[in-house]
Amino acid sequence: MITKKQQYSLLSLIVLIIMILSLTLSLGCSSSEKITGKAIDDSYAGKVSILSVKVVDEKNLPIGDAVIYLNSVYKGKTNSYGESKGTKEVILTQENNIIRAEKVGYFAGRQESVHALLDQKQHLTLTLTKEITNLAVRALDEDNNPIYGATVILFADNEDDKNRLNNQNKDATELFKKVLISDENGFVLFERVQDGPYLIKVSKEEYGLSQKKVEVRYSEHGAEAKVELSLLPWPTLKLIIKSPEQVLLQDAEVSLYYDNDYNKPGAIPNRIEYSSGEGITAFKDIALNQGYVVVIKKEGFESSKLDIEMGDKEVKLEVEMEPLLEIEN
After folding, report:
1. pLDDT digits over 22-65, tens only?
2. Which CATH architecture has domain 237-320?
3. Cα–Cα distance between 122 and 62 in angstroms, integer?
4. Superfamily of domain 44-127
5. Please, is 271 exposed, middle or buried when counting C-beta atoms within 10 Å of its C-beta (0-12, 13-18, 19+)?
């Protein structure tokens, strides 16, 4: 039979064992909590390795908010501001490690192997390449035949850039990115065009200007976006000049003005031609969708003035010039 003293001793022993077990478990938990992958307790310095990761683009500029994965485990994002922009510190808790970085709008970076060096702070730079689209532009005529030798200009069409230039009293045409000449298949290729709005202008002698706004998006176009622009031949303005008796008038002076220049003081004609023996004057390569004023003069006749709006078709007009009235003495 166990005495009360023995019962007390046994109970004390059980309590002591429980306390020892609790303390052991507590120490074990504390050890596991000291290394979290994000911070390290000073008492554990030298037993793990701290890795400072820097993520940059192809121009070596830091990239903020890039996601870091260590051994396929998410470890947070790189800093977005200040001197530490593009950096992130992680804890290496095993000898061999695989680390990579990702960010929307960039190609997936290459995985890097890192061997942990205890009691040392290590550094690693990861480079991400921005998702970039090549922009192929093709110049075609009205029959969809390729146009060789067309000038193709790619302009930025970003309002922030325009406002910046306006504040500097600069013309928005300074925003053009590149000028290329189309090949025998009518193509030009603008390489590595970043996402955003652009304006494309295509021109060639004997053709009207063609332009188009495009929005380049890698997520939509992938590695290459394609755009086609058609050029229409410059229309011809043809005038047949005659008298009221239907006599064709030769050597009539025909002056061509842009309509918005005609009424300006000291306005100068855009071009001057003289009628042939058949009374014909032809202005080729007339700008599309442009208003003109035509003034016709010939000795012995009243001058004539015509307002003409050119579209994309030839304009042919017959003009009768009235003789000057004779003044009786």
Report:
1. 655 554 443 333 333 444 444 444 466 899 999 998 889 999 99
2. Sandwich (2.60)
3. 18
4. Carboxypeptidase-like, regulatory domain (2.60.40.1120)
5. middle
Q: Tell me, which fold does domain 133-230 have in CATH?
A: Immunoglobulin-like (2.60.40)
As a whole number of angstroms, the longest Cα–Cα distance in the chain is: 166
Instruction: For the chain, give every domain's residue range.
Output: 44-127, 133-230, 237-320
Q: What is the pLDDT of residues 31-43, one digit of tens each?
A: 333 333 444 444 4
Continuous H helices in 35-70: none
Q: Are 142 and 70 in contact (CB under 8 A)?
A: no
Candidates 133, 156, 137, 135; CA nearest to 219 is 133
Q: Does pTM top 0.90 for this prediction?
A: no
Instruction: Classify 233 as helix, strand or coil.
Output: strand
The two tokens of residue 204 are: 């060639």
Confirm if 204 and 231 have CB atoms less than 8 A apart. Answer: yes
- Kindly report the three-state secondary structure assignment for every residue of 212-247: EEEEECHHHHCCEEEEEEECCECCCEEEEEECCCCC
